[in-house]
Design goal:
The complex is a heterodimer of chains A (141) and B (836).
Chain A: H1 3-24, E1 27-30, H2 32-37, E2 42-49, E3 66-71, E4 77-82, E5 95-102, E6 107-115, H3 124-140
Parallel strand pairs in A: 1-2, 4-6
Antiparallel strand pairs in A: 2-3, 2-5, 3-4, 5-6
Chain B: H1 9-37, H2 41-74, H3 81-86, H4 96-100, H5 104-125, H6 130-147, E1 151-153, E2 156-158, H7 166-169, H8 180-183, H9 197-212, H10 214-226, H11 233-261, H12 272-297, H13 301-323, H14 340-364, H15 380-402, H16 404-411, E3 415-416, H17 421-443, H18 453-477, H19 486-513, H20 523-543, E4 546-547, E5 576-579, E6 584-586, E7 589-598, E8 604-613, E9 622-625, E10 628-631, E11 637-640, E12 642-645, E13 649-658, E14 671-675, E15 680-683, E16 686-695, E17 709-719, E18 724-727, E19 730-733, E20 738-741, E21 743-745, E22 750-757, E23 763-769, E24 776-785, H21 788-808, H22 813-833
Antiparallel strand pairs in B: 1-2, 4-24, 5-24, 6-7, 7-8, 8-9, 8-10, 10-11, 12-13, 13-24, 14-23, 15-16, 16-17, 17-18, 17-19, 19-20, 21-22, 22-23
The chains are: A alpha/beta (141), B alpha+beta (836).
């Protein structure tokens, strides 16, 4: 076998090892219930902000503490603590992708992705709302 | 129904040119192929003529489509969906171009235009390989025209046209009125995150980079088809170098943009969209090196074929990832899904090019000439090949990770990224950086075929020694403090940093020691040095990035985990609340939030932060930063950072939380005290002394004229803690009535009012304390040390690649110098000065 072939094989082996080591710290998408079953493990939860429950954020006291209640599509709820500032338009978000670990009392969120309705111009329903809203103003003028 | 005020002609024209362009590119593809297949000279040349004219026709069609679209956006013709979605009246005209490539349709258009331009250059040069390369480009043009076609076949719409009408796209009651256009006041406008000069520059560069990768692909695949295996490499090299230059610049422009104006807190985050453009770049860099090997030694031809084709295939795959919505939750800035039909079309586009390329490669593999004698271990080609392989494997590693959402879709799994995504990439890439650093340092000192050990040692001794000294000094006087991921990772950072420094010095030295200062041939050395400089800059600026809005220094003191050496290991809490007018410590500075002002555009607010160096004994260093928050029409907020640039560091800050202007009006009332100058009055938190009253003052605060009726009071307020402040409220009487100029003491939460004059001639001073008036913002602030090295590095890398392009296309010395000077000035300006 040629040197280059050996090196190619070694390289591919290294690549596979690299990807496998990565596989070890894979996380998963979970529901609140299944995240509770693996307390302490890093998971992704897709949920919504429960708008009936209070959102606690007092930046003057502590700008790095946000707590709220999240509800997932199965109807399960959990308290969430997010040690960061409150994202803009948090209350308006329609969907949250939360990354963190489940603790006995609450879900400790490390990072959060927000899906807000109007950021997505290609969403037809939203466009319809927009047309109606802008023209509504127009008529009243 | 007849609708009033619509301008339907531009749309019809645009649509016509789309169809014309589609047909023309189809004819071009067919007749280019025909001209290659035909043996008879006269027929051959007539097919070729037809093909060339068709290709030019589709190119002109594209330019006209673009012009029409620009016209529609420029004139705010909101009857067109594209203008309604992407343009708005208040938008500054420089962003009109940005509107065009904000949407899917416009960016396909941009891509097609660049391919047409590159095709035209090839067409003009009339080389023997032109027809086969242009045939491949024409096929790609057909695909891109389909993307913007927008014609229904049955219920399925093929492609999304940029010329659809708003009333056909959206179902809303107003469209049943003939005068609906009067009701649409304004378009939705460009997303505020995208209102930045980089949005005007970055996409054209990136798409030129993407578009240019088709040229090496076309060379490779047409050579495989025609079984002419060796001739393509030489002409393909300058094109590949051009791709490397432009795509590399385009990618880093995106990084600079993210760094400058988006609140991501950095220039690279291993976001899927970033990765998707980085992977093809790595592959074409690998391909360019194997082509060089083949050119010099005859080795690595198979690898050259493979890499040249994979570069474009991965551009297509990136398109698939970023435009079909498959990334979904994984990325912050992918395009959103634009309909199932278009997704299928993008998918077919990928398959149409990837499958034949791969099949052909494997079918012809055995026939591709290869040298059976091994490369010597001491030869340049051997180590260049190792480097190329390294880059390719890295790209596969990155794309394999990035494709996670694709596996989830395919296999119904629910795998997600690990806890620290960036680290999961960095821990692998830092090792790659180390190896590439060493290879680029030593590589040029090796000779093709075999390098005598003595020669190598003699040549490389000096740069090695210099590098060792520089690296050691750096390690002693400017150590990296990155303890978050443990000692192993820190050692890896040091190793990569030393390799990068070695490479910078070795390559710089090579220009004099190896090339005797012959700059025309030094493109490789310049771009290697630039690349290594960029890596060094990244390692330093990220390794020593410092969070200065650290809550643990703000008296709140949240305990942060420390390791045995007392080094901080955990992320500090990065947000800091600044009360108005209260100086707060941040790193080496006292920072005071002094107020906010409104920007030109509606909904834009600038917050003023005054920075003052704590140790002001040496120099009185003071500056202000004005990050802004932008509330869009749809009430979305975006936060844009402001940066103070120094040669050696950037101080970077943005607003992470600000109260909305919801006017929490204060309901408390003033406590009024009547007094003469010199008197003392009491209120519930302390006492007030009226020092003096001044008539029609003209000072720093008020500018009254002598014939005004106005008074200013000088009041000293002492609160319970014994803290004393002065306030200067004023009152003015004019023909409209009484105007009170209250003085607000934000730090004390207090309003002071000159309330009037009593019947007895005493001065009425009002005092009000309130909890509702607290004005504050929450900020994040970082120091990025030596970040300019990153920009300097990318600039040198691009310039080096350009030098090689010019050298390999045998540009005349005068052209060579002119192009290089202009391009260098532009690149340096963009990356280092444009934002200051």
């Amino acid at each position: 076998m040629k040197k280059t072939h050996i090196i190619i094989l070694v390289g591919i082996a290294a690549l596979i090892v690299g990807l496998l080591t990565y596989a070890v710290d894979f996380s998963t998408y979970d529901s609140i219930a299944s995240a509770r079953k693996k307390e302490g493990k890093f998971v992704h939860i897709i949920a919504k902000l429960d708008k009936d429950q209070p959102v606690e954020y007092d930046p003057i006291k502590n700008p790095n503490y946000l707590s709220f209640t999240a509800i997932d599509s199965l109807g399960n709820k959990t308290k969430v603590v997010y040690l960061n500032s409150k994202p803009t338009d948090f209350e308006k978000s329609e969907r949250l992708v939360m990354k963190g670990t489940m603790k006995p009392e609450y879900f400790e969120c490390k990072d959060m992705l927000l899906k807000c309705p109007s950021k997505y111009k290609d969403d037809k329903e939203q466009l319809q709302k927009n047309v109606t809203a802008t023209t509504g103003n127009g008529e009243s003028r | 129904m007849k609708f009033e005020g619509e301008h339907l002609l531009p749309g019809q024209l645009g649509h016509f040119f789309i169809i014309l362009g589609l047909i023309a590119s189809g004819v071009a593809a067919f007749s280019f192929i025909k001209s290659i297949a035909t043996k008879e000279i006269q027929q051959k040349s007539s097919w070729e003529k037809l093909a060339r004219y068709s290709f030019i026709t589709q190119g002109i069609s594209l330019l006209l489509i673009f012009s029409v679209l620009f016209y529609i956006c420029y004139n705010h013709l909101f009857e067109y969906m594209y203008a309604y979605k992407h343009a708005s009246k208040e938008l500054e005209s420089k962003f009109l171009l940005a509107c065009i490539w904000e949407g899917q349709e416009g960016s396909f258009l941009l891509w097609a235009i660049w391919q047409a331009v590159l095709g035209y250059i090839i067409l003009r040069r009339k080389k023997e390989w032109s027809s086969s390369v242009l045939a491949v480009i024409s096929i790609a043009q057909v695909c891109l025209f389909f993307m913007i076609l927008g014609i229904y076949f049955g219920d399925v719409r093929i492609g999304n046209s940029p010329f659809t009408l708003t009333r056909n796209e959206i179902a809303a009651p107003i469209f049943s009125r003939p005068d609906y256009l009067n009701l649409i006041q304004d378009g939705m406008g460009l997303n505020v995150l995208l209102r930045n000069y980089w949005m005007v520059i970055h996409p054209p560069f990136l798409f030129l980079g993407f578009a240019s990768t088709i040229v090496p692909f076309a060379f490779a695949i047409s050579s495989l088809i025609q079984k002419k295996y060796t001739q393509w490499v030489k002409p393909a090299i300058p094109w590949t170098l051009f791709s490397i230059c432009v795509l590399g610049l385009g990618i880093m422009m995106g990084g600079k943009w993210a760094y400058e104006s988006l609140s991501f807190g950095g220039y690279w985050a291993w976001d899927p969209v970033e990765n998707a453009s980085f992977v093809p770049w790595l592959i074409i860099v690998a391909g360019m090196h194997t082509m060089l090997i083949f050119n010099a030694t005859g080795h690595s031809l198979r690898a050259s074929f493979f890499f040249a084709m994979m570069g474009f295939v991965f551009v297509l795959y990136s398109t698939f990832l970023t435009r079909t919505g498959v990334l979904g939750d994984a990325s912050v800035h992918a395009f959103t899904e634009a309909g199932k039909a278009i997704n299928v079309m993008i998918g077919s586009f990928v398959f149409l090019f990837a499958v034949p390329a791969l099949l052909l490669f494997f079918v012809r593999y055995a026939k591709i000439p290869a040298i059976h004698k091994e490369e010597a271990t001491g030869s340049r080609e051997f180590w260049m090949f190792i480097g190329s392989l390294m880059l390719f494997l890295t790209s596969i590693f990155i794309i394999a990770k990035t494709s996670l959402p694709v596996y989830n879709k395919l296999f119904g799994t629910n795998i997600a990224n690990p806890e620290d995504v960036e680290f999961s990439y960095n821990k692998v890439v830092v090792i790659v950086a180390f190896i590439i650093g060493l290879l680029t340092a030593v590589g040029q000192y090796l000779k093709y075929k075999e390098t005598p050990a003595k020669y190598l040692l003699k040549k490389i001794a000096v740069p090695t020694l210099v590098a060792a000294v520089v690296a050691t000094l750096l390690g002693i006087f400017y150590p990296i403090h990155f303890y978050k991921h443990g000692m192993g990772f820190l050692i890896a950072i040091y190793a990569a940093l030393f390799a990068a420094i070695y490479s910078v010095i070795a390559n710089a030295y090579y220009i004099w020691g190896g090339l005797k200062g012959n700059l025309r041939f030094s493109g490789g050395s310049v771009s290697h040095a630039g690349f290594a400089l960029m890596i060094a800059g990244m390692l330093i600026s990220s390794g020593n990035k410092q969070v200065i809005s650290n809550a643990s220094v703000n008296g709140i003191n949240i305990p942060v985990a420390k390791d045995a050496n007392g080094k901080q290991t955990e992320d500090p809490m990065e947000n800091l609340t600044l009360l108005r007018d209260v100086p707060t410590t941040m790193g080496d500075y006292w920072v005071t939030y002094t107020g906010k002002t409104f920007g030109n555009e509606k909904g834009k607010r600038f917050y003023h932060l005054q920075f003052q160096k704590k140790d002001s004994s040496k120099s009185k260093e003071e500056f202000s930063l004005n990050p802004d928050v932008y509330v869009m029409k749809d009430n979305n907020m975006s936060s844009n950072p402001d940066t103070r640039n120094y040669l050696s560091k950037d101080i970077f800050t943005y607003i992470s939380f600000a109260l909305n202007e919801s006017g929490n009006r204060d309901t408390g009332s003033f406590h009024i005290m009547e007094m003469n100058p010199g008197d003392t009055g009491y209120y519930d938190h302390g006492y007030v002394i009226l020092n003096k009253v001044e008539r029609n003052p003209d000072n720093g605060k008020y500018h009254f004229k002598p014939n005004d009726v106005a008074m200013q009071a000088d009041v000293r307020i002492v609160n319970k803690d014994g803290k004393s402040v002065t306030a200067h409220p004023a009152i003015q009487v004019d023909n409209i009535g009484i105007v009170n100029f209250d003085d607000t003491l934000y730090a004390q939460n207090m309003f002071v009012r000159f309330a009037g004059i009593s019947k007895e001639g005493k001065v009425k001073i009002g005092v009000k304390t309130s909890n509702g008036v607290i004005d504050f913002i929450t900020v994040k602030a970082y120091v990025f040390p030596w970040i300019n090295i990153v920009w300097l590095g990318i600039a040198f890398m691009a310039i080096g690649a350009l030098m090689s392009v010019l050298q390999r296309t045998q540009a005349k010395p005068r052209v060579w110098a002119a192009v290089l000077v202009v391009a260098s000035l532009a690149i340096f300006y963009l990356f280092l000065f444009a934002n200051q």
